[in-house]
From TrEMBL:
Domain Phosphotyrosine protein phosphatase I per the UniProt entry, residue ranges: 3-153
E.C. designation(s): 3.1.3.48
Key words, A-Z: Hydrolase, Protein phosphatase
Gene3D superfamilies attached to this UniProt entry: 3.40.50.2300
Root EC class: hydrolase
Record protein name field: protein-tyrosine-phosphatase
Record-linked SMART domains: LMWPc (SM00226)
Pfam families tied to this protein: LMWPc
Signal sequence, renumbered to the chain: none
Length: 163
């Protein structure tokens, strides 16, 4: 049985597809791709069916990551099949916890930057949508930094499940 992680931002076209691609690459590099499933969604459905923002695609491809993506909206029923739901900012964290039907589901929701010890108290990944390319580059840096800690946690969980 796979360990399932879903990354969630607002519209599922900038931050969450970026971290989905980065984390999928980390999982593959770690040799865990047969044990861990990675996907993403948005808290809203404004962009459902769309690809990732062209600036996200550009930053991902320039840094050697896959950029294929189709936006979708997070559904409360998904909690039952997910092991971890990663919010990109505190607004998403609150929205996702409100959607959770049980305390167990709410406990699955975590902030991405909580896995980056260098993040300090600033755990939000800012939305780059209304800015320029520098915001997308900054987003990628934050995502890559947090992915290492998240990978370590997912590896621990997968090893626990294997026992």
């Amino acid at each position: 049985m796979s360990y399932r992680v879903c990354f969630v931002c607002t519209g599922n076209i900038c931050r969450s597809p970026m971290v989905e691609s980065v984390f999928r690459a980390r999982i593959a590099e770690a040799g865990l791709d047969a044990l861990v499933e990675v996907d993403s969604a948005g808290t809203g459905g404004w962009h459902e069916g769309d690809g990732a923002d062209p600036r996200t695609v550009s930053v991902l491809e320039r840094n050697g990551y896959d950029s294929s993506h189709t936006a979708r909206q997070f559904q409360p029923s998904w909690f039952s099949r997910l092991d971890l739901v990663i919010a990109l900012d505190t607004g998403h964290l609150k929205a996702l916890r409100r959607l959770a039907r049980t305390a167990e589901d709410a406990a699955k929701v975590r902030l991405l930057r909580s896995y980056d010890p260098a993040a300090g108290d600033d755990l939000d990944v800012p939305d780059p949508y209304y800015g320029g390319m520098d915001g997308f580059e900054e987003c990628l840096e934050m995502v890559e930094a947090a992915s290492e800690g998240l990978l370590a946690e997912v590896r621990r969980q997968v090893e626990v499940e294997a026992v």
